[in-house]
Amino acid sequence: MSRQIETNITKDCLKLLDNLIENGYPIYYEHRSGGGGFAYKKGIPDLFIVVNGIHIECEMKTPFGSRDAMQEKWELR
Questions:
Q1: First to last CA, the chain
Q2: Is the pLDDT of residue 77 over 90?
Q3: The pLDDT of residue 24
Q4: Which tens digit of pLDDT belongs to each residue from 41-76?
Q5: Which H helix or E strand runs over 29?
Q6: pTM for the predicted model, two decimal places
Q7: DSSP state, 37?
Q8: Residue 69: helix, strand or coil by DSSP?
Q9: Chain-wide mean pLDDT for the chain?
Q10: What is the pLDDT of residue 13?
Q11: Going by C-beta distance under 8 Å and a sequence separation of 6 or more, which residues neighbour residue 24?
């Protein structure tokens, strides 16, 4: 259940990013998925986003979700 909620949150974020891009905002993003998506490595954040040259990493979690050891390691980098 929690995984499905995270999937829905990610889909909503992707829709928002696409909408902003369509309206001329200088945004680039890549969605990393556990199914072998863009440069997937265990523990890395779900979204790689660049806005006006500023790099942002986003990890989707529900209020009940928790980070695993690899996610905590990536956060400390």
A1: 30
A2: no
A3: 96
A4: 666 788 899 999 999 988 777 667 666 666 666 666
A5: strand 27-31
A6: 0.70
A7: -
A8: helix
A9: 78
A10: 93
A11: none
Whole-number Å distance between alpha carbons of 28 and 5: 24
Cα–Cα separations (whole angstroms), residue 20 to 17, 32, 44, 49, 55: 5, 19, 24, 12, 16
The number of beta carbons lying within 10 Å of the beta carbon of residue 46 is: 21
Which neighbouring-strand residues pair with 51?
27, 54
How far apart, in whole angstroms, are the C-alpha atoms of residue 40 and residue 45?
9
Q: Which two tokens stand for residue 71?
A: 């996610």
Largest CA distance in the chain: 38
65-72 CB contacts, 8 Å cutoff, 24+ apart: 65/2, 65/6, 68/43, 69/43, 70/42, 70/43, 71/43, 71/45, 72/43
